[in-house]
Specification:
The complex is a heterodimer.
Chain A lengths: L8 E2 L2 E2 L9 E5 L11 E7 L2 E8 L7 H6 L7 H4 L8 H15 L5 H28 L4 H22 L8 E2 L2 E2 L7 H24 L2 H7 L17 H5 L7 H4 L20 H25 L21 E8 L4 E8 L7 E5 L2 H13 L7 H7 L4 H5 L1
Antiparallel strand pairs in A: 1-2, 3-4, 4-5, 6-7, 8-9, 9-10
Helix pairs in contact in A: 4-5, 4-10, 5-6, 6-10
Chain B lengths: L1 H10 L3 E6 L2 E6 L4 H10 L5 E10 L4 E9 L6 E9 L15 H11 L31 H8 L11 H8 L15
Parallel strand pairs in B: 2-5
Antiparallel strand pairs in B: 1-2, 3-4, 4-5
Classes of the chains: A alpha+beta, B alpha+beta.
């Protein structure tokens, strides 16, 4: 980008002069309909062009990592899901996987299938929420309203399996809490058909919409050479040609037994990212159907760990990762041999996307496109603050 | 992974610990870290910095910094561990190697008090504003003591039984009949 018309950058800060009358500073958020979650954007504009942007986080900081150091391993299990509201199951799975690896606890095969099922269902719910947000950020609130309604059907399924709609607390160290309820298969198929109907409608009104195309084509281009220097992951990187997908590269749970291809884009802009995510939604539905078809229906679903109130994990450290809707999600857990973790570090993909990358990409865009650009990076602030 | 560790051992003074077939940790000194990370990035195709975080090893009066890297295909991870002095916690910045490293370093400066001289915006607020205590992620930061000192104390509930709790706040709370079959 030609930065000659923009103020000089010294020590990472733009040297704009507000007294010159050429620039206006605007605060977006933390409560703002155009900002995902509770995040504040300090935007400097010249006319309607963004000259400088700084992301401010901390409005959702609840000190999860510090809390986890002070609780028993089992007490952290209902805590981790709260780090990502729209897709909590990835956190549950990763925390359980890290504890299982450090303690040597085996997981029954049936539990691995049930875990994969809930992971894919939460992926679908998270993508539905994103699709509504992406449409809403470009003024198409109707798709947003459809999305909220359809996501609720998926949440009904979660309620049937786990008892919880938002936070499921289903994947526990040693397996899962329960098997599927009676009549679940038919309910699931019914919901999947509703989601497909919604996606069919969204395809017509969103992806074939001239306004949406005009505003997203060429917006927020991520070139392949930006992927590593900015730590870009998931669909954001895949839309730029990357083929990395943890489900394929380092299969966890039962992803090695499922048939699917990594969805890759080429145009690298907001429209292509939306297309990639839309295709991943379709893929998620196919994966759920595959799982339901070949999943074992008998056998143990839970290996009981030792008395969880006195459960001491041998000293060691590990890093486990899984593919979330935003990209690689990871848990780095350090144990010192006591009954509480020494350190838990939660690596959410939004950490790099919403700060270093977004601050760079926003410069030069139209101010009105800023919310759409942010949603096209699919960021969730709680992952940044933890 | 094994051949990589062998090559690294020939050039750097590192110790290795294999956790899984696709995850290894290596211990390095703070002095050789920039060269080691540059080597891994440029010659061994560990091009992606997944995260940078710290573990407070208060019993040794040290901080452990963990740099987690991933190779090009994202199949293998290598965690580079470095110990630094806890009292004078200063580490070389790697913001010149990865753009997003500055965010990690800014957070570590705030949460652990580890300085990274030269890292852009390292002294800016990241999550906390107007923080005057010791960095909160240090092991010796007492969260309970801080909240008792900072926030207005409220009397807690002496019981978790709903009826007794309601009686405590409202003496006129009616005596409802117990449900049949419930233990009193």
């Amino acid at each position: 980008m030609d930065r000659s018309k923009f103020p000089e950058i010294v020590d990472g800060k733009s040297q704009y002069d507000l007294d010159s009358g050429r620039f206006v500073k605007i605060w977006n958020g933390p409560q703002h309909p155009g900002v995902t979650g509770n995040m504040a954007l300090e935007v400097v504009i010249s006319g309607d062009e963004v000259v400088d942007l700084k992301t401010h986080v901390g409005y959702l900081h609840r000190g999860f990592e510090k809390l986890m150091e002070q609780r028993l391993y089992i007490q952290n299990f209902p805590l981790v899901c709260r780090i990502c509201v729209p897709e909590p199951d990835t956190n549950e799975y990763l925390y359980a996987a890290a504890v299982e690896e450090l303690s040597g606890l085996e997981v029954p095969e049936r539990a691995q299938w049930l875990r994969t099922l809930t992971l894919e269902m939460s992926r679908l719910a998270s993508f539905i929420m994103w699709l509504g947000g992406q449409a809403g950020s470009f003024g198409m609130g109707t798709v947003g309203q459809w999305a909220v309604a359809v996501r609720d059907y998926v949440l009904d399924l979660f309620e049937a399996i786990t008892g919880g709609r938002i936070y499921h607390m289903y994947i526990t160290p040693g397996g899962v809490r329960d098997i599927l309820p009676e009549g679940f298969d038919a309910d699931l198929e019914d919901v999947l058909k509703k989601v497909e109907k919604f996606m069919h409608d969204a395809e017509i009104v969103l992806f074939h919409n001239a306004v949406f195309k005009k505003r997203t084509k060429g917006l927020g281009i991520i070139t392949p050479d930006m992927i590593d220097p900015y730590g870009i992951l998931g669909p954001n990187a895949r839309a730029a040609g990357s083929t990395r997908d943890v489900r394929k590269d380092s299969p966890y749970a039962v992803y090695d037994k499922l048939e699917f291809n990594v969805i890759v884009g080429s145009d690298s802009d907001a429209y292509d990212r939306a297309r990639c995510r839309f295709q991943e939604m379709q893929q998620s539905i196919e994966l759920i159907r595959q799982i339901m078809e070949i999943m074992p229906r008998k056998g143990s679903f839970y290996n009981r760990p030792p008395n969880v109130l006195h459960w001491q994990i041998p000293p060691g450290e590990t890093y486990v990762k899984a593919e979330s809707t935003r990209g690689e999600y990871g848990y780095y857990v350090v144990s010192d041999g006591s009954n509480k973790p020494r350190r838990v570090y939660v690596k959410g993909p939004s950490y790099t996307h919403a700060v270093a990358l977004f601050e760079q990409m926003a410069v030069g865009t139209n101010y009105a496109d800023l919310p759409g650009l942010m949603v096209s990076l699919h960021t969730y602030p709680p992952e940044i603050e933890r | 992974m094994n051949s990589l560790i062998k090559r690294l051992k020939m050039q750097f003074d590192v110790e290795e610990q294999t956790q899984r077939s696709n995850l290894s940790f290596i211990n390095a000194t703070a002095l050789q870290l920039p060269a080691l990370l540059t080597h891994l990035r440029d010659y061994e195709k560990y091009t992606q910095l997944i995260f940078l975080t710290a573990v407070d090893r208060i019993e040794d009066n040290q901080f452990q910094l963990t740099y987690m890297l991933a190779d090009e295909s994202s199949q293998n991870n290598i965690g580079v561990r470095v110990r630094i002095d806890r009292e004078n916690a200063v580490m070389t910045s790697i913001a010149h190697l990865w753009h997003h490293a500055r965010t990690y370093q800014q957070e570590l400066r705030e949460m652990f008090g580890i300085d990274f001289p030269g890292s852009p915006g390292v002294n800016d607020n990241f999550i906390l504003e107007g923080w005057e205590e010791i960095p909160p992620m240090r092991r010796d930061f007492d969260t309970r003591e801080y909240s008792e000192k900072t926030y207005f104390p409220r009397p807690g509930r002496s019981t978790t039984h709903p009826r007794t709790a309601m009686k405590a706040v409202d003496p006129d709370y009616p005596e409802l009949p117990l449900m049949k079959g419930r233990v009193k």
